[in-house]
Amino acid sequence: MVRRTRFRLERVERRLHILEGRQRILLDIDAVIRLIRESDDPKQDLMMAYPLSALQAEDILEIRLRQLARLEGVRIDQEIAQLRGEQEGLQHILSGREAQARLIAQEIRSDLTTYGDARRTRIEAQAAVSLDTPVLDEPMTVTLSRQGWIRARQGHHLDSAQFSYKAGDEAWIVQETRSIHPLFILDTQGRVYTLKGADIPGGRGEGVPLTSLIDLPPGARVAQAFVALPGEQYLVAGSGGNGFMVAQQDLVSRVR
Predict the structure, then answer these.
(1) pLDDT tens digits, one per residue of 13-39
(2) Domains of the chain by range and CATH?
(3) Are 252 and 194 in contact (CB under 8 A)?
(4) What confidence tier does 256 reach under pLDDT thresholds 50, 70, 90?
(5) Where is each Topo IIA-type catalytic domain found (predicted)?
(6) Which of 60, 69, 91, 249 has the CA that lies 20 to 30 A from 128?
C-alpha cells in the first residue's frame, strides 16, 4: 500500500510540474510559438526566456504548434486543482501509520462489499497433530568407549568382544536398553544430557564421538552413561560420599 501510494504521488507530482510549465507560457503563447520556430536551440532558449525546467521545456516542444495555440487555461487550471487535491491526500496517507491503517480498513470493507459471500468451507475442530516421528520399539545395546566413541547395535546379550574399536581404545560402558528409552550422560560437573535412543548412530563401525551429540563445557568429562526408566527413582552420588535421589523425569534435559 505504501509503495503504491508513493508511486502514484510521484506520477501526480510529475504531471503537476508539467502543467505548471504549460500554465507559465500560456499568457505569452504567441511569443513562445515564434521562439520555437526561429530558434536553433529552442529547448535552451525556452528555459532561458521562461523559468522552465528541462522536463517542462521538453513537454512544450513535444506539443504540436497548432495544439499549443489552442491550450485552454481553464482546463489546465482545473486539472492542476484536481491533482493538488489528490497530492494532498496521498501525502496525508504517507504521513503516518494511523492514516495508512484507516485506508487499509477502508479497502478491506470495500472488498468485502464487492467480493464477499458466505463461507464455502467448514471449520471443524480436530485433534492435535503430533509432529514427532514415531519410533519403533526394539531392543538395542549402546556402547561407549573409553576414548568417547558411542554407537548402538540392535538386540541384547551381544558379545562386546566382537565390537571393533580404534587402536588403543576399548569398551567402557555397555547399556542394554530399548530404542524408545533415552540414554542419560552425566558429566564430572554434575550436568545431565539426554540422548534419544533412536538418535544414537548404529551400524557395525566404530561409532561417532560423543561430543558430536552433546556439548561438554570446558574441563568437563563424561562420568557415567546410563538408562533410566520412566517413573523410577535413582541414587546419584559423588566420590565424596554425598548423594541424592532423583526421578527419571527430572533427569530429562533439552540441553545438547
Answers:
(1) 999 999 998 888 888 888 888 999 898
(2) 2-115 (1.10.268.10), 139-251 (2.120.10.90)
(3) yes
(4) low
(5) 2-108
(6) 249
